[in-house]
Amino acid sequence: MAHQQLHPIQIDPRTEEPFIRLPSPYENIILTPPRMEDAPHIIQNLNDPKLIQWLEGPPHPYTAEHAEFWLQTITKSSKSIFEELKEANEKDPNGSLAIVGGFPLRSIREVKEDGTQTFLGDISVDRCGFPGELDPEERSRLTEENANRKVGDPNIVWCIGDYLASSHHGRGIMSAVIGTVIREWVVPRMNAHLIRVEAYTGNTGSVRVFEKNGFVLEKTVEFEKPKILNSGMPQYGYYVLWWRRP
Ligand SMILES: CC(C)(COP(=O)(O)OP(=O)(O)OC[C@H]1O[C@@H](n2cnc3c(N)ncnc32)[C@H](O)[C@@H]1OP(=O)(O)O)[C@@H](O)C(=O)NCCC(=O)NCCS
Question: Which residue ranges make up each domain of the chain?
């Protein structure tokens, strides 16, 4: 797997798995592709009220079948990015770094002193589907326009989704993860210029994480009537924040 186009991804010599290590003081945190054996940890996290009170996507209760289906889906996406990198390397092994259509290392892991690794959470970077756009026609139009843009187009609007095991909240980990992913991959390897994120009103922790990474609050939208998430939690509105490449 070792080839120039992987930069700045490293390869674990023991397992040959690609990874990016966070900078100090978070060297014990790495980002890797998803692994099927993460399922029990994903199930635990996606049934944790502290997390799912803020998450729209996951079904509830979150079962082993959900985790397996999800892991298969995201493993495929991660592999397809590595295929793009491999092709770029075969075409031009000494060429400049290729721009690719996604981020393949979404699983956040803690490396213990004895070398064992624990799944801690997830960071996704996908083309935006404008989830909070209240007008369905406008949402479809924006999503289609965004999906049709070519890889590397600076007008692609990207969305970040994230969660971290509640045992590790408040230690600065997600702020460092997002900073690293944007700096090390999303800018140089995806040519991203625009990232749009949404967080439900009251999710101050999430907003702080984005603000600390240069995102700016654009607007706060209030729902006409409370939206009930799969977890049963009511939500009353959402913030929209944007990151624009400086
Ligand atoms: C949002 C989330 C990913 C943050 O991860 P984290 O590693 O705990 O975040 P960090 O420690 O890097 O930063 C959290 C910041 O928010 C602040 N914060 C957290 N909760 C807060 C609260 N209730 N009120 C005010 N500030 C709060 C912290 O003080 C910190 O800011 P600071 O560094 O300026 O002090 C994590 O809380 C999580 O998984 N939440 C549930 C899922 C979720 O909401 N995902 C995002 C959906 S949009």
Answer: 4-244
The answer to whether 85 and 100 have CB atoms below 8 angstroms apart is yes
User: Do residues 218 and 241 make contact, with C-beta atoms less than 8 angstroms apart?
Assistant: yes
Q: Which of 30, 53, 185, 176 is nearest to 108 (CA)?
A: 30
Overall fold of domain 4-244: Aminopeptidase (3.40.630)
Instruction: Enumerate residues lining ligand 1, CB below 6 A.
Output: 51, 54-55, 162-164, 169-175, 199, 203-206, 208-209
Task: State whether residue 154 is helix, strand or coil.
Answer: coil
> What is the β-pairing status of strands 10-11 and 18-21?
antiparallel
Q: In angstroms, what is the span from residue 228 Cα to ligand 1's centroid? A: 22
Tell me, rounded to whole angstroms, the distance of Cα 206 from its chain centroid. 13
Convert the pLDDT of each residue in 30-53 to its tens digit.
999 999 999 999 999 999 999 999
Q: Sorting pLDDT into bands at 50, 70 and 90, what band is 1? A: low
